[in-house]
Structure formats: structure tokens, C-alpha cells
Amino acid sequence: MTRTGSVNKLHSHTPEPFVQIHPDDAKRLNIQDRQLVQLENNNAKFLAKASIDDEQQKSMIFAPIHWSDAFASAARVDSLVTAIVDKISGQPQFKSTAVQVSADQAKWHALLFCKENVDISFDYWCKNLVQQATMYSISDQCDEKFIIKRIQNMFKHIKDWVSLTDAATGHIRLAGFESDELTVLMFISPDQDGLVDKNWPAKQIGEKFEKAQRYQVLIGKDQGDVPDVGAIICSCFQIGENQIKDAVLAGCKTSEALGEKLKCGTNCGSCIPELDKIIQTM
Ligand code: FES
């Protein structure tokens, strides 16, 4: 990854703010991998997804510094750090701070795709650029019964909506159209794994849909057999986790072998530790 890389590609590599935590600490705190966690001290609250990793030192956690308030609801690490500076040099003390870590009790999770940035006020959200869409990953503790109304209020200028609610699974889907053009699409689930893959819905934003086709977009995926590549691991070559897992199952047991088959890891090389981790966990 480089500072000059395209933002879309960087987003596809680590699409959400995360907190790296040792497995023993995660177990003690009853935190699952990818669960929303809260860091808190006298200065601020911070929300991000847990990334359980045995390379993280025990009793310490790590969070990246690059998330700003423009891209996430509460993922600015420096908000947690007390404003102390060295008396002589003025150098701030910003490398570490004490926090309490706990699992957040979000009731539902969602992906919201839209054409442009929108003012958003849920407990947790982060923003990504995916294809031609702006995508918000959202989690919240409010009653999901009010979500449809709340989203429609955010897009008051849209009058043309279709929605589906499945009371048995708790899934809710919603699409908004302007002159037949899809401008808002949202998938809500009580469980993060119940959400759709982001790539197909993002591609539909800005497309025209006849009245008869509108409910089809709520399916959230291509109705042909286009495979889901999964989260992008190698941003240089846009190779996804599912492609890498398939290659490992097909016999690629080293990062070099994966590089020969898929090219991943053969440019900047920064994805190689993640390739090794996937190989080890399979
Ligand atoms: S991210 Fe650069 S080679 Fe994979």
C-alpha cells in the first residue's frame, strides 16, 4: 500500500476501522472477530471492528491512525489521547494511551449505497467509495422498526421507494429511485454475515430500472453465476479473499505459489503477511 495509491483501492483493502486484539484478551472480554468494539477513556469513545490476531501483544491493542471524522463516526485514535506535550520540545505524547475495551451491543448492521455523501447519525458508521457508489457500513442499537422511516427522512427528495421486510429473519431491504434511476439501496440484517457482498449493489447505483424490475434489485446480487471474490487482500491486483482461498484449496501452499497463480503479492508485496495468514488458517 502506498500513500499515492487510489483511495478506492485503499478502501477495498481495509474497508473499516479496526482494533487488533490478542486472542486471549478477546476471550477474556468475550469479543468475537469482526464484532464491533468500543474503546473508552476520559477523553473519548472510539468504535471499530475487532481483528483478533495472535501477533498482537497481550494486554495491548493496536488501532490505525488514518481514519478521520469524514470517513467514520468515532474512529479518530487521537481523540483518545490526552493532550500532553513535552515541556521543552513541544512534542506531543500521542503514541499510546490507556483505554477500556468492551464489546458493543449493536442490534443490527447495514450497508447503505448512495450516489453522494449524506449526513448520517447512527451509533457506528464508516464510509467507503465502491465503484460509482458511496457505501456506508452502519451498526446501531436502535429499534430496527424505525429504520425505513429514518432512511427515507435522510433522502427527503426521493418519493419513489420499494422495500421488503422479512419478519422471520429480521432482514430489511430498501431501494429509492429518481426518474427510474436507482440512487439509494440499503440492506439491513441482525447479523453481519447476513449482509450482501458490496460489489454488485454498488454497480447498480445510477442504473435505470423499469417499474417491473425494481424488486429484483433488492435481491442484492447478480442472478447469473458471477462469483464473489470476497474482501480485497491484494490491492495491487484486486485479488479477493475468496479467490485466494480457492487457490490454497487447489494446492497453492505458499505465497510464492499464490503469486504464480493469481499474481497477488508480486508487486509491492505488502499483502504477503495476509496471504501467509490465510494459508496458515486453512
Ligand atoms: S498489495 Fe501490492 S502486491 Fe499485493
Any ligands, ions or cofactors bound here, and which?
Answer: FE2/S2 (inorganic) cluster
The Rg value, from CA coordinates, equals 20 Å
The global form is: globular
N-to-C span: 25 Å
List the keywords.
alpha+beta; Barwin-like endoglucanases; 3 domains; five-stranded mixed sheet; 7 helices; globular; binds FE2/S2 (inorganic) cluster
Walk me through the structure.
- This protein is α+β, with helices and mostly antiparallel strands and 282 residues long.
- The chain has three domains: 16-83 and 98-103, Barwin-like endoglucanases, CATH 2.40.40.20; 108-219, no CATH class; 232-281, BFD-like [2Fe-2S]-binding domain (Arc Repressor Mutant, subunit A, Orthogonal Bundle).
- 19% of the residues lie in helices and 26% in strands.
- It is built from seven helices and 13 strands.
- The strands form three sheets. Strands 7-8-6-11-10-9 form a six-stranded antiparallel β-sheet.
- It is globular.
- It binds FE2/S2 (inorganic) cluster.
- FE2/S2 (inorganic) cluster binds next to loops.
Summarize the structure.
The chain is α+β, with helices and mostly antiparallel strands and 282 residues long. The chain contains 7 helices and 13 strands. A 6-stranded antiparallel sheet has the order 7-8-6-11-10-9. A 5-stranded mixed sheet has the order 4-1-3-2-5. A two-stranded antiparallel sheet has the order 12-13.
Topology (elements, then pairings):
Blueprint: H1 7-13, E1 18-21, H2 23-28, E2 36-40, E3 45-52, E4 61-62, E5 100-103, E6 108-114, E7 124-130, E8 133-140, H3 147-154, E9 160-166, E10 171-178, E11 181-189, H4 199-204, E12 232-234, E13 239-240, H5 241-249, H6 255-262, H7 272-281
Parallel strand pairs: 1-3
Antiparallel strand pairs: 1-4, 2-3, 2-5, 6-8, 6-11, 7-8, 9-10, 10-11, 12-13
Bound molecules: FE2/S2 (inorganic) cluster.
FE2/S2 (inorganic) cluster binds at residues 234-236, 264-271.
